């Protein structure tokens, strides 16, 4: 208000001291205009929309706790003898990095708590990014105009994993060193250039004396800066696109139904930051994470049983564990012109991850090409109303989870008293058939739910009340839905297969034929929403019963 | 000397030479191996112990290990395994075995301390083998840091760096070491039960074993400085925890925040 008043009414003087001060600032930065614009921004309310916020808040907490840790951490690989207060490691030879991590844990006031805050926040950060992406995928929020923001989100996921991995290795303990050795092995398995990359990265033969300080620079400088940049781009696009909303009465692709940001939503979001912080703080206070003192300093000779990476790298580790060395006499290792080509490291390390990320990044365009849908979508799909997409998502999710489970194959074996070999064999089988089973089951479940929705829309909800009619017939009383609830069940778009169409020259190209085939595969199994005519017919049926019984709510 | 050199072409000279060589290597080997063995000090066992032990053995163990512990198809010979092996296997309840399988499970011991002692006396009387370790090796007053290094180099690849245990092939496993007595840890090292290799005294000295026990007992006594240890299973239990408890609580809050008081 005061911003607008500056030009016409320079004589405006606020009544209070605070008011005058605010006016002074506002006249110079124009904050009220910005506040007015953002304060009126409407956000729809749904719990599943809040995972992006969780990720953002976790990141803020990571920045704060990480800054604290940098005050005490020394990323040097110089050798030292531990002289801190943890007796089981007294006088043990170790790197300065490990020693300073132990000092943070045992000799810096609040250091262990901050380390645990940082690590739990990191796990929660990547987890909330992943859940946020799943929500976006399964509700179709990646469709036009948000395809590019989906890609930015994918980049953020990779950056989050990179931030996690570089940080995980910093304490230079045995566990993370084992992980680093696996990465070194994977890099070295890349044909021709692998050995060179490894030597450049580690500054010589593994483990060298530079890797920790290099990872440190990446971890506290480059990766967070890139994450911050991507978050800015991501949020900017959210503001430009406006938020998506779940289908409901009065909601369409041209509006957003919800609450304005200010003041209620802003207060909720601000409060939610403290909730997330509180949850992380409680976890850090009561549950230990990455007890580096248990693992001991890194030394290339010992390898501990039960060596796993943090959860978000687990699926790649799992793929490595699943890969057989030899299949009935067929070897995966070749020597070509004196160079070793180790496919049983190269394939599992790169192929599944490559596959997952390629599909992830290109999926919006794949679906767009199949549907030829060039409209903007701001109303989300309920997952059941896009059965094939949901099924594809679940197949991918299962593929990921099989590899994820494989990373803990040894713990599955010891804790469920089964043989490690059997766990591996089953997971190998599931690696191939799991996604297929998930696809078929999910699609059938989605279609069944759609049929149930249709049934409820047409005939109402079963009340469980059985009524005996005068002539002896038993009927169950169905309660009709109110308009709002019915809208949710019928107000969705059900795409049908789009046959091949000729191009401008009147030719149906081979590519178009392929698209048509995919479109049929995508949409041939469909349960159309109940049409107004069908609803009318359904009601007519109700009325007949109602007229017969003289009871207004009866229907079946 | 001349007489000897004259007989060097004697038809039996080659055989005599072979015999001498064999005796020498065999003798040296016998000396070398017994040097590495913790010797059974039968002194602490009385004749009654041995006799009672034999009775217990015949009633409970001979079905598989054979009369005189000479072994059958179902169980190995126990001649020369020593008192330490008996004390470990019977004392931790692994023997008598509950069922056949890749590995015997630890269970409540079937025999009391006296009976275990008698069984050990009997088996020790059959042939020299590793003895039950002396008390001074189990006082947990060694160097924990040195023990930690020995543990990480020799034991962590199966038992996990935090001694939380780990999987081996085909249903076998290395158990977690919390709550295992120092005596049983020592005996396991010298006898190599189940799938464990033997760490004899030239591999890890008795002092080294004492250090390892000190280390294990110290990390057990230290507990978990950072709060509940979630099974000390590393990133897997941490990941499970953040997904189930961490995200679970957060989801509960998101539902609360977005619910309306309609």
From TrEMBL, chain A:
The keyword Protein transport does not apply. Its main location: membrane. Residues 536-545 have a biased composition (Basic and acidic residues). Residues 534-556 are annotated as: Disordered. It catalyses: a quinol + 2 Fe(III)-[cytochrome c](out) = a quinone + 2 Fe(II)-[cytochrome c](out) + 2 H(+)(out). The chain crosses the membrane at residues 54-73, 117-138, 150-170, 182-203, 215-240, 269-289, 322-341, 347-366, 386-405, 425-442. Keywords: Cell membrane, Electron transport, Heme, Iron, Membrane, Metal-binding, Respiratory chain, Translocase, Transmembrane, Transmembrane helix, Transport. Its cofactor is heme. It is found in: Cell membrane. GO terms for cellular component: plasma membrane. The keyword Endoplasmic reticulum does not apply. InterPro entries: Cyt_b/b6_N, Cytb/b6-like_sf, Di-haem_cyt_TM. It is a multi-pass membrane protein. This is Cytochrome bc1 complex cytochrome b subunit. It comes from Arthrobacter globiformis.
TrEMBL record, chain B:
Its main location: membrane. GO terms for cellular component: plasma membrane. Keywords: Cell membrane, Electron transport, Heme, Iron, Lyase, Membrane, Metal-binding, Repeat, Respiratory chain, Translocase, Transmembrane, Transmembrane helix, Transport. Its EC number is 7.1.1.8. Binds 2 heme c groups covalently per subunit. It is a multi-pass membrane protein. It is found in: Cell membrane. One of its GO terms (molecular function) is heme binding. InterPro entries: bc1_cytC-su (IPR009152), Cyt_c-like_dom (IPR009056), Cyt_c-like_dom_sf (IPR036909), Cytochrome_c_Oxidase_Subunit (IPR050597). The cytochrome bc1 complex is composed of a cytochrome b (QcrB), the Rieske iron-sulfur protein (QcrA) and a diheme cytochrome c (QcrC) subunit. PANTHER family: CBB3-TYPE CYTOCHROME C OXIDASE SUBUNIT FIXP, CYTOCHROME BC1 COMPLEX CYTOCHROME C SUBUNIT. This is Cytochrome bc1 complex cytochrome c subunit.
């Amino acid at each position: 208000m005061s911003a607008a008043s500056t030009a016409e009414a320079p004589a405006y003087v606020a009544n209070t001291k605070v008011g005058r001060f605010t006016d002074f600032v506002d006249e110079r930065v124009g904050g009220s205009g910005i506040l007015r614009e953002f304060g009126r921004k409407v956000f729809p309310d749904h719990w599943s929309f809040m995972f992006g916020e969780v990720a953002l808040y976790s990141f803020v907490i990571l920045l704060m706790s990480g800054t604290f840790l940098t005050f005490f951490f020394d990323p040097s690989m110089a050798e030292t003898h531990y002289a801190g207060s943890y007796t089981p490691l007294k006088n043990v030879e170790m790197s300065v990095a490990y020693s300073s991590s132990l000092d943070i844990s045992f000799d810096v006031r609040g250091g262990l708590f901050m380390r645990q805050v940082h690590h739990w926040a990191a796990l929660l950060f990547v987890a909330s990014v992943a859940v946020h992406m799943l929500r976006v995928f399964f509700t179709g929020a990646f469709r036009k105009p948000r395809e590019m923001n989906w890609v930015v989100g994918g980049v953020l996921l990779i950056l989050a994993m990179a931030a996690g991995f570089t940080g995980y290795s910093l304490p230079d303990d045995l566990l993370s060193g084992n992980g680093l050795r696996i990465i070194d092995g994977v890099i070295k398995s890349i044909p021709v250039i692998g050995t060179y990359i490894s030597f450049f990265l580690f500054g010589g033969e593994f483990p060298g004396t530079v890797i920790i300080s290099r990872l440190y620079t990446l971890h506290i400088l480059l990766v967070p800066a890139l994450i911050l940049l991507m978050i800015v781009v991501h949020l900017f696009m959210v503001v430009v696109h406006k938020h998506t909303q779940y289908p409901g009465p009065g909601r369409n692709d041209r509006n957003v139904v919800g609450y304005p940001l200010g003041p209620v939503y802003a207060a909720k979001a601000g409060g939610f930051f403290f909730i997330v912080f509180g949850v992380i703080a409680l976890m850090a206070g009561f549950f230990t994470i990455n007890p580096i003192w248990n693992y001991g300093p890194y030394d290339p000779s010992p390898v501990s049983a039960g060596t796993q990476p943090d959860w978000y790298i687990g699926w790649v580790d799992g793929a490595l564990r699943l890969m057989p060395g030899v299949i009935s006499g067929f070897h995966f290792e070749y020597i070509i012109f004196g160079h070793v080509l180790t496919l049983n490291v190269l394939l599992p390390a790169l192929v599944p991850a490559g596959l997952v990320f390629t599909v992830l990044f290109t999926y919006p365009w794949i679906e767009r090409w199949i549907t030829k849908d060039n409209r903007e979508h701001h109303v989300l799909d309920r997952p059941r109303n896009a059965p094939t997409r949901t099924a594809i998502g679940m197949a991918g999710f299962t593929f990921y989870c099989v590899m994820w489970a494989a990373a803990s194959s040894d713990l599955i074996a010891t804790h469920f008293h089964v043989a490690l070999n059997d766990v591996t064999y089953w997971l190998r089988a599931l690696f191939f058939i799991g996604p297929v089973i998930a696809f078929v089951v999910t699609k059938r479940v989605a279609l069944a739910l759609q049929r149930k929705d249709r049934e409820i829309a047409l005939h109402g909800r079963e009340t469980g009340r059985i009524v005996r009619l005068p002539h002896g017939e038993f009927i169950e009383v169905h309660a009709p839905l109110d308009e709002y609830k019915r809208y949710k069940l019928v107000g969705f778009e059900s795409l049908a297969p789009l046959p091949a169409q000729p191009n401008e020259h009147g030719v149906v190209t081979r590519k178009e034929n392929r698209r048509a085939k995919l479109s049929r595969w995508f949409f041939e199994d469909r349960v159309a929403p109940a049409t107004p005519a069908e609803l009318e017919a359904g009601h007519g049926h109700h009325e007949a019963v109602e007229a017969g019984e003289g009871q207004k709510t009866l229907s079946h | 000397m001349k007489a000897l050199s004259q007989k060097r072409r004697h038809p039996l000279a080659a055989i005599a030479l072979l015999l001498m060589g064999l005796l020498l290597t065999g003798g040296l080997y016998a000396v070398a191996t017994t040097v590495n063995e913790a010797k059974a000090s039968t002194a602490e066992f009385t004749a009654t112990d041995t006799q009672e032990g034999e009775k217990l053995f015949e009633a409970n163990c001979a079905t598989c290990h054979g009369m005189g512990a000479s072994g059958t198809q179902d169980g190995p010979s126990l001649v020369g395994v020593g008192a330490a092996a008996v004390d470990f296997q019977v004392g931790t309840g692994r023997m008598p075995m509950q069922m056949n399988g890749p590995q015997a499970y630890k269970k409540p011991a079937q025999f009391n301390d006296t009976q275990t002692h008698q069984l050990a006396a009997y088996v020790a009387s059959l042939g020299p083998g590793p003895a039950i370790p002396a008390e001074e090796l189990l006082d947990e007053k060694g160097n924990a840091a040195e023990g930690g290094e020995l543990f990480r180099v020799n034991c962590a690849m199966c038992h996990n760096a935090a001694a939380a245990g780990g999987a081996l092939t085909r249903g076998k496993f290395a158990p977690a070491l919390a709550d295992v007595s120092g005596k049983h840890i020592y005996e396991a090292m010298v006898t190599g039960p189940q799938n464990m290799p033997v760490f004899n005294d030239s591999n890890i000295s008795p002092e080294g074993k004492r250090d390892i026990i000190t280390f294990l007992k110290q990390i057990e006594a230290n507990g978990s400085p950072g709060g509940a240890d979630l099974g000390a299973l590393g990133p897997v239990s941490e990941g499970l925890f953040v997904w189930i408890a961490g995200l679970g609580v957060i989801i509960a809050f998101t539902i609360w925040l977005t619910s309306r008081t309609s």
